[in-house]
Amino acid sequence: MESFVNDNKVDQNEYDLILIGGGQSALACGFYLRRTQIKYLILDQQAQPGGAWIHGWDSLSLFSPAEFSSLPGFMFPKSENYYPVRDEVISYMDDYQSKYELPVKRSVQVIAVLKQEGGFTLKTSIGDFKAKTVISATGTWASPFVPVFKGLNQFRNEQLHSAYYKNALDFIGKKVLVIGGGNSGAQILAEVSKYTAVTWSTIGVPAFLPDDVDGRVLFDVATQKYNEQKAGNDQVQAKYNVRSIVMVPPVVDARARGVLNSKGEIERFTETSVVWKSGEEENFDVVIWCTGFKPALKHLEPLGILQPDGRVNTNGNSKVEGINGLWLVGYGDWTGFASATLIGVGRSARSTVEEVVDFLKL
Description:
By secondary structure, this protein is an alpha/beta fold. The protein has 2 domains: 8-143 and 294-360, FAD/NAD(P)-binding domain (3-Layer(bba) Sandwich); 152-208 and 245-289, FAD/NAD(P)-binding domain (3-Layer(bba) Sandwich). It is 22% helix and 18% strand. Strands 1, 2, 3, 4, 5, 6 and 14 form a 7-stranded mixed sheet that branches. A 4-stranded parallel sheet has the order 7-13-8-9, with helices on one face. A hairpin with a 4-residue loop joins strand 11 and strand 12. Helix 2 (24-33) packs across helix 7 and helix 4 packs across helix 6 (249-256). The relative contact order is 0.17.
């Protein structure tokens, strides 16, 4: 669904601000932009609302209950599920955009952002747009990461990243290797193991949170640590490691079935197998990479600001160093505390919009 405060803005293609990406980060910024005099537009590559959740696997869910998973101004509706599922999150984002009549233009790919006098030119799949300021809010889902392994280019059996995993039905009767010790690895292992033989590879022993610790608790713990550090206490230790695996119901079930066991690290690949650090060689039909993502910032390459790790230097929050008028929202703590979460992005969105208003003197 597209909604525009003023249809004439689309024809003009010139704005005070353009936001790139239409997921949760852009929506949160849009909520605060409504209260300003800024002429802005959200350009989203997706054909529908939902951000990265559109591409998530069928059984993907939040880590927090609905009441702790809201964007600013509009509560996530009650859910029949303790942890809202993918389709509920997509529906919530659709309703959010409609409720606040946010100006989103969909199915538009931003190919490149160029700096020019007085602002930026955005090269897109439907032509050029000009803006005095830009907020990039493209997230990470479009940039899946696969680590380097010796012999990987020789492996000729099936591979896919968790970004493209949908469900386990395609793997029935196949021998599957899941690589990655985070939440996606544990959840996909849990699901696929109900249908076929699965082996899990992680670096070190997987770390699991207590059963009663979910995203809500992790956010509270991380907030406490953040506030302590802001107050000058850099030695504070969080009670829980936010990188540990959340024991959502499918993972609890997998534990009960005895499948949450890692075989350890891989030494190298062959054409049809992996060689483990132990020296054992084992054949696999499918490898599922649950190894995370890098920031989806290819559109910023012309600005010459991308670092080797794919990040951009910021001021510790969302403002990009060395490029006036450019902000990043929602890529992780390096662009604002908890900014990659539904409940946390509002803080970064609000402060970023305040900075944009100040920059534009509006």
